[in-house]
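TEACHING EXERCISE
Course module: macromolecular assemblies
Task: Read the component lines below, then compare them to the predicted structure of the full complex.
Student: A.B.
Group: 4
Components provided:
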Amino acid sequence: MSTLALTGGRILRPDLTVDRADVLVDQETGKIAEIGPDLADAADETMDATNSLITPGFVNGHCHVAMTLLRGYADDKPLDAWLSEDIWPAEAELTPEAIEAGAELGLLEMIRAGTTGFADMYFSMERVADAVERAGLRARLGHGVISVGKEHEAAREDAETGLAFAREYDGAAEGRIRTAFMPHSLTTVSTEIYEEYVPKARELDVPIHLHANETADEVTPIVDEHGVRPLAYARDLGLLEPQDFLAHGVHVDETEIELLAETDASVVHCPASNMKLASGMAPVQTLRDAGVTVGLGTDGAASNNDLSLLDEARDAAMVGKLAADDAAAVAADTVVELATTGSAEAIGLPAGRLEPGAPADLAVVDLTGAHLTPAHDLVSHLAYAAAASDVRHTICDGRVLMRDREVLTLDANDVRERATAEATALVERAEA
Amino acid sequence: MSTLALTGGRILRPDLTVDRADVLVDQETGKIAEIGPDLADAADETMDATNSLITPGFVNGHCHVAMTLLRGYADDKPLDAWLSEDIWPAEAELTPEAIEAGAELGLLEMIRAGTTGFADMYFSMERVADAVERAGLRARLGHGVISVGKEHEAAREDAETGLAFAREYDGAAEGRIRTAFMPHSLTTVSTEIYEEYVPKARELDVPIHLHANETADEVTPIVDEHGVRPLAYARDLGLLEPQDFLAHGVHVDETEIELLAETDASVVHCPASNMKLASGMAPVQTLRDAGVTVGLGTDGAASNNDLSLLDEARDAAMVGKLAADDAAAVAADTVVELATTGSAEAIGLPAGRLEPGAPADLAVVDLTGAHLTPAHDLVSHLAYAAAASDVRHTICDGRVLMRDREVLTLDANDVRERATAEATALVERAEA
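Instructor-supplied answer key:
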């Protein structure tokens, strides 16, 4: 019955007000027991939060975490060429060992950035799940199902792999791991596969997560082939249930925004990736105004190139204003919500709020940096000025994952060395 | 005749290739004496650069450094409302002491971000110059001349202040401080003031720096009043000499890009500020393709909200691709150039290149972060993944300004405390 008190700091309340309070964590249940003044005496152990802001842990709503291995491997190319010329040839050489090493590197980076939960679509997901179990984060994981370029039977096998993973790993790591069925996108998975496997995923009662409306180029073929906009096609396939979440949602028209609002399916906005691949600007303010749940994701490190939700929040505010042609759009409070409650709701993980009874998933952000001085508005600082390196402590499910910048659940040097070796070997195989 | 060797690291060459080499700094002359293997024995002192990349110090081409006092004070508003409702009323309450405290805070932040040179336009510039002298950076400083809302004689007085500062401070701080004549913009300074004072600035042989074509709203009145685009009007006023540099250049048409190329005047791109104020997207790739010298600036911290050139480089790449609708535009190597040689050339400071005989203005970037692993491409890492907090050491003019994250020329705690006190008092006066 161990309890931990975070003392001397300020906390970010669910309504985004900030006040001075200690936070008492019940490490047995993994939940916040109490928030209030002077909780040190009530705790078995204390952790210093002076000159710091205790925030909900950040939630990364869309990632391919093992792609850290390809960080900086190929930049400055549009999505299609980048995938076909660089990423897919390299990914064809991935081994389960490489994926586990890349995942650990990404988890290390996320813990160091105050991220406590994420959604991930990739391959060899049992290896990613193993890494998540050790690292201590919360995750919504799924095998990325692709049918393009495959015979129908091979595509069915891939979908079966996706279903089996979703079935077997849901609730793993003492409940920290949840799963989803993850068809890659509307253009890379056949109608037949959707028709057969969406009902099977519904039987498992897991959400469905896919890329949708990321580039203009992927909208046209769907309209040509099916005679409707992509999200109308998605709805016809049964893909827009309230628990489902779509990555990107850049090229959505008014009818599709309405459809998202009606169905309650969520969008995970990935501004850095959308900018870096010149995919476009998602209409985030319009989506929010329509009542659509919007989360925030980094996408893979190869198109970002980091996994910091604080960076992503700043990017979201910046590009959201350009998209709306309005400096008041996608304001500081909005992007802090996107990175916490927005993502948590979108991917269906129980996190994002600091209140008694909520999961103790939190980050403690050091406020003493010159770049965070003066302190007129701490929500503004989170949105526009704070960086991953300002995060002092990271706690997930009541467990301390990082203390004073030292990650406790992974050996940082070992993780970096293994990932470097796997990345080097991977690129050698791909270029052989 | 003290010499300092940076040992065990890799260096970023002027052609943006990276190789292993030590750097020998002659602290007497402030210049790089030698670059090559095993220079430790040739030096009086060594500084560790293992697992690090030695880069040119970053150059911030456009700033209002004392505006750190207003960081996070007013966000999420368009330029006009933000200036008239929040920034100008607060600035009206600025004292020379407040400006010096804000400048020191900004200099502290810049040193910690590896910045060694910057251009600054503000008020009480003699106090900014004092802070620069102590902090040890290089700067191009000027008093911001404004005539809008003033009687002509008061505007002339302001211009005289600008001229006097440019005259008296050029070459201060052992030559690290250079000056410029800095009329605020084409719409906030009258034609009469330009006509009288541009020739006087030319007599002093200092560059002219102003804001230009930042928002669409500032183009229309110039076209209405003068019948030509803003940069044609600027040329007619004598403002586009090769040593002159314009901040922003967002809303420039083809004729204006051609004019910049012909006249050799430079543009300092401020992507974060342009996004945050929804001013628009500067056509950076088009400017570069036309042969225009482009630098990179943070603008003031109130519209950014940090002063890191690494953040700014990432922003420039991201929004540059959107502006060009091309993921290949404004590539990693381009933004690293913008942040180093581009800015140095634009603002006329002798920095930005690591080669023997060049000023020893450099930053040493730690490469061991999870977010900088693996190391496929270090130029990509500088552009897309490295953060201010990765900078270990900062050296300017041969002098060590920061060693192992400790700033040696300023007392960080003292600077933060003073700036906080001044910022709090300033806001109280403004809101009284």
